[in-house]
Amino acid sequence: MPQVRVTLKCNNSECGFERERIEDMRDLSLDIVEGCDVTACLTEYFENTEVSVDCEQCGCEGARKSGLIDTLPKCLMLHLKRFRGEGGGAKGSLTMRKGSELVTFGKALDLEGLCVPCKGAGGAGGAGGSNFELKSVVRHVGALDSSGHYVTDSLGKEGEWMNYNDSRVEKREESDVLSGAVGREAYLLMYERA
User: Fold this and answer.
1) Local confidence pLDDT in tens for the 194 residues of the chain
2) Domains of the chain: which residue ranges?
3) pTM for this one?
4) What is the C-alpha separation between 9 and 19, in angstroms, rounded?
5) By the 8 A CB rule, do 161 and 82 touch?
6) Which of the four CATH numbers 3.90.70.10, 3.30.450.20, 3.40.50.10810, 3.50.50.60 does domain 3-193 have?
7) If exposure means fewest CB atoms within 10 Å of the residue's CB, which of 6, 12, 73, 170 is most exposed?
8) Residues with Cβ < 8 Å from 45, sequence gap 6 or more?
């Protein structure tokens, strides 16, 4: 099972208590920043962030949370958080809107800088490396979560990209799969260890 090592460190400089825990990782849900690439989204996901939690040792409120991948998966699923709640109308209703920010991604993804060094990674962590190859992109076409359509571009065994759109299956150029138009609709990116 792929795992992430999460570290919490007390903000009280006199205490500095640190606690680590290992969490199972099924997928990573990434916040999107306009014009970023998927590596930047991953880096932000694992970055040092402020959390509101009481220190187990001194009782002070506030800690910094950070994480690194502890055990690499064979298959990595990245969920790009495109849908956001808006509203709070007269009845407190919430409307979901889809963001169309550009997220660029490549055919290859290297997670070395985001690892502990990882179990199962190349070098000190073992055999296998931290390199991944893009195998599939699930896109959401439409503006809302309740109205839209999902299509998939997947890499076949012969190395050809195919587009799956309901009952229609068509060949697709790799350059089209990696284009900015797809980057504005990409919802799930699926990578496999190279």
Assistant:
1) 789 999 999 999 899 899 999 999 889 999 987 778 999 999 999 998 999 999 999 999 999 999 999 989 999 999 999 887 776 655 667 777 778 889 999 999 999 889 887 555 544 334 458 899 999 999 988 877 667 889 999 999 899 999 999 999 999 999 999 998 888 999 999 999 98
2) 3-193
3) 0.85
4) 7
5) no
6) 3.90.70.10
7) 170
8) 28, 30, 31, 67
